Amino acid sequence: MRATRSILLLALKDVRLLLRDRLGAFFTFAFPVLYALLFGLMFSGTGEGSGTVGIALVDLDRTDGSRAFVERLADSEALDVTLVADSDAGRELVRRGKLSALLVLPEGFGDPATTLVRGERVRLEGVVDPSRKAEAAILKGTLSGLVFEHIGDSLRDPDRARAVIAESRAALSEGAPPAVAAAVDRMLSGVEGLLDEGEAVGLGAADGPIDLAIGELTSGERTVPVTAYALTFPQGAAWGLMACALGSSLSLVGERSRGTLVRLSLAPIARWQILAGKALSCFVISLVMLAVLVGVAHLPVFGVRAESYMLLAVASVCACAAFVGVMMLVASFGKTVAAVEGFGRAVLLVLALVGGAAVPVVFMPVWMRTAAGVSPFRWVIEAMDGAIWRGFGVQEMLLPCGVLLAIGLVGFVGGSLMFRFSRVMGD
Q: What is the Cα–Cα distance from 54 to 90, expressed in whole angstroms?
């Protein structure tokens, strides 16, 4: 009971000191809101960029032509193709944020040249992750180019082009009105004349040859974000947690430099209680910061709503626990405030960039995407995305929340073992 009271009093002391420092309190509680608003403004429109886009691919046509197009997609440097059995499996991967989009090759796609000769548009279907607008723009542009290449290869062979014309004539004779059939037949005769003269063939529909029916996930699969702020809220939260962790680590080192920790260690208080009090204060401050950020994000002007507030609370607790561990590790790597501040900012900024808190992971090299797994920022963003709009269930939240708790535990234990209470004696 006495140990618990000591920990609570030490934590309360740190919270009071923070509230007395108006500038420090501003950067702790208000600045994360500015971060979130800034990211929301940056991503409120459709962006453009370059990078490898991960897509799930379903081939419903299953013809030689569609298989050739699948190979063309797989060979593209702009796409990372994952073949899936059906649309439901692909949608699940997109909903969970594992891939950027789902592409479906519908029945009849395998011979787009015949489709164009008939005056129809080549149709591609799919859905995209709404938080990855830049990748969606890359996907649409890449698909248009690949479909044209596929059609061009099909018609580059004169024998194949004549076969397409013959198939189109047969189809027109079965169901097209006589006037339309006669007009198209005259056009096909002209194309045959070009083939006899060795000319290239160029065909297309009047309003564009390709119909890319690619939309966002439906409301039945996720809660549609009302504004871009629902997509960028986790980024603002991650930056806020970084500020809390760095501030608490500097406070801990500052007390050591001033001799406060030495005097506390002479009192009837165990050293682990002193560190536990610092950890608790960091945890409480971080949790209050997240609560303030959630409250601001729920204002009508921003309109952020969570899919599950229970899971959002769990994600918040796990995120705060992870950054308590980060705080302890940062505080243990230095004997002065200046050293810890420089080290902490450098390490945390690198972790933030690698973890996707600033630059989307899709634009990073493959090795860096793998390295992102060690960054708490990556798991904070995934956990909060899942609770706010991706519609994660309890089972899907186990991985990000489990990793965050592991980071917090390892960081706190490791930092506590390495931390030195006295800057003079180094004990």
A: 11
Q: Which amino acid is at 244?
A: C
Cα–Cα distance, 69 to 147 (Å, whole number): 8
Query: CATH 3.40.1710 region(s) of the chain?
Result: 53-216
User: Is residue 383 within 8 Å of 319, Cβ to Cβ?
Assistant: yes
Q: What are phi and psi of 101, to 5 degrees?
A: -160, 160
Which amino acid belongs to residue 320? C
pTM of the model: 0.71
Cα separation values, 85 from 45, 124, 414, Å? 33, 17, 45
Q: How far is CA 250 from each of CA 72, 125, 290, rounded to the nearest angstrom? A: 54, 53, 20
Within 8 A by CB and 6+ apart from 241, the residues are: 286, 289, 290, 319, 320, 322, 323, 380
The tokens for 150 are 């596929």
> How far apart, in whole angstroms, are the C-alpha atoms of residue 75 and residue 56?
15
**Model confidence pLDDT, tens digit, residues 185-236:** 555 554 455 444 444 444 444 344 566 667 766 544 554 455 678 888 898 9
* Cα separation, 421 vs 272, whole angstroms: 11
Q: Which CATH number fits domain 53-216: 3.30.460, 1.25.40, 3.40.1710, 3.90.120?
A: 3.40.1710
Question: What are the b/e assignments for 175-192, b being 16+ CB within 10 Å?
Answer: ebeeeebeebbeebeebb
Q: Tell me how far CA of residue 239 lies from CA of 13, 83, 166, 379, in angstroms.
A: 25, 36, 63, 13
For residues 108-137, one letter each, b for 16 or more C-beta atoms within 10 angstroms of the residue's C-beta and e for the rest, the string is bbbbbbbbbbbbebbbbbbbbbbbbbbbbb
pLDDT tens digits for 89-110? 888 888 888 888 899 888 877 6
